[in-house]
Amino acid sequence: MYSIAIDGPAGAGKSTIAKAIAEDIGFIYVDTGAMYRAIALYFLRKGIDGHDRKLVAAECPNIHITLEYDEEGKQQVILNGENVTGYIRKEEVGKMASVTSAVPEVRAALLDLQRDMAKTSDILMDGRDIGTNVLPDASLKIYLTASADVRAKRRYDELKEKGADCDIEQIKTDIIARDKQDMEREIAPLCQAEDAILVDSSDMSIPQVIDTIISEFKKIK
């Protein structure tokens, strides 16, 4: 079994890149960020303060996340029996996920599920700590990043395309704050694994990034 780990900060394009590569090489794609977002959505719906670690930890046994795949092979995130794929990409969900994913009980709730997937299939998994924590023995590790300005512009364009009213400077501020929070958390902070290949996509197109990572994978096959 092969496993590819793609880590990196918010807005680096991990999910877009990972989905395309997995489809190209026939791997199962696992969006771990979506799993954490689903848990965050649960807390938002319950009106739970994400910073209240005891309450967050106490609720974890009541949260059940599974991944399913539709007829087109697209990942669907199931939260306590409900398909929440269409609800988890909102900004407030992402912000909550950055807070609650730092709680050990939240990470433990998903860790076994993520590792078990890697034992049974060729998978490509993206997140914040895949190469450093979830799959430390991954066949290939990539650290995908881009400058805060570039990531803010990409997010701004994405939101404007959806008709949302947004401010690019606020988006950049939020991205920088999210980076700081993810890199400084006590449990499995965001960082580049020692054996990960750095890919800075600031001046690269999506096809260029995809080709770069696939070429690295072909070196180890």
Automatic annotation (TrEMBL):
Name of one Pfam family that matches: Cytidylate_kin
Annotated binding of ATP, by residue: 8-16
Keywords: ATP-binding, Cytoplasm, Kinase, Nucleotide-binding, Transferase
Gene Ontology terms, MF aspect: ATP binding; CMP kinase activity; dCMP kinase activity
UniProt keyword Ion transport, yes or no: no
Recorded superkingdom: Bacteria
InterPro entries given in the database record: Cytidylate_kin, Cytidylate_kinase_dom, P-loop_NTPase
Residue ranges crossing the lipid bilayer per the database entry: none
Limits of the Cytidylate kinase domain: 4-218
Entry's Gene Ontology cellular component terms: cytosol
Signal peptide interval: none
Catalysis: reaction(s): dCMP + ATP = dCDP + ADP; CMP + ATP = CDP + ADP
Key word rRNA-binding present: no
Gene Ontology biological-process entries: nucleobase-containing small molecule interconversion; pyrimidine nucleotide metabolic process
Enzyme Commission number(s) from the entry: 2.7.4.25
Record localization: Cytoplasm
Protein name, entry field: Cytidylate kinase
